[in-house]
Amino acid sequence: MREPLSRSEAADLAVLLKAVADPVRLRLLSMIGSHPGGEACVCDLTDTFDLTAPTISHHLKVLRVAGLIDSQRRGTWVYYWVVPEVVARLGELFASPAADIE
Q1: Is residue 81 classed exposed, middle or buried when 0-12, 13-18 and 19+ CB atoms within 10 A define those classes?
Q2: Crossing angle between the packed helical segments 53-66 and 23-34, to the nearest 10 degrees
Q3: Is pLDDT above 70 for 1?
Q4: Which of the listed residues 40, 41, 52, 73 has the most CB atoms within 10 Å of its CB?
Q5: What is the DSSP-derived secondary structure letter of residue 88?
Q6: How wide is the angle at C-alpha 11 spanned by C-alphas 35 and 56, nearest 5°?
Q7: In this structure, how many other beta carbons lie within 10 angstroms of the beta carbon of residue 78?
Q8: What confidence tens digit (pLDDT) does each residue in 50-80 have?
Q9: Quick one: DSSP state of residue 76?
Q10: Are 42 and 80 in contact (CB under 8 A)?
Q11: What residues have CB less than 8 Å from 92, skipping those under 6 apart?
């Protein structure tokens, strides 16, 4: 960061941070992002957790509403993928500023 966040930038980033602050959602995001082909079927995600399908769906919805993932229904399954630009905003928040070369 080179300058303080504006009120609106802070509010936008807070939504993203709240979405990934849950361990299940953070794991889901990493599973989707690292899945071969860059997208994962909900059927690939549910067996990993000792949670009900509605609970997994809730966590996926939180990530989707925050804009971190997007989805598409294909037949009976829903496929999810990471939205790179949005995830990159989180990375930028924690990246060290580049050294000034003068």
Answers
A1: middle
A2: 80
A3: no
A4: 40
A5: H
A6: 35
A7: 17
A8: 999 999 999 999 999 999 999 999 999 999 9
A9: T
A10: yes
A11: none
